[in-house]
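Chain and backbone:
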Amino acid sequence: MKWLLRLLWGTVKKPVSWWRFRTRIKSVAVEELPDRLHKHRLYLLGAMEPWAAALLCPCGCGEVIQLSLMLHDSPRWNLQLEPEGLATLTPSIWRTKGCGSHFFLRQGSVIWCGQKSPRDQFTSVSRSRTKQQASSRKADGAHWF
């Protein structure tokens, strides 16, 4: 019975793993960073051992995030690769300029910090700006209809 289950699992394992990892970020080793980066790709720069990593910001803003993997750099990230080409980067990635995305990359999955998704992040920012504008208008004596 066990051999039958193993045979069956061996037959369906590849199609199932493709479906399971379909939206994850997969790593690609390159010598130089391409002119146009693709979504859901982590580019590892370096021939034998990667010294840098680059990816498009997962929030959709289109900005390129470049990370150092060099041992004596600061800041630097640690890279762990899974057999399927899925990467884990530590510590978290936090864009302090632009969109302000803050996330972890774990086994190719983006795990957002604070907000549930970038859409929630932008919504909360726009709500806080609207509240600030309304309070400043009230302080100025202006009416907001």
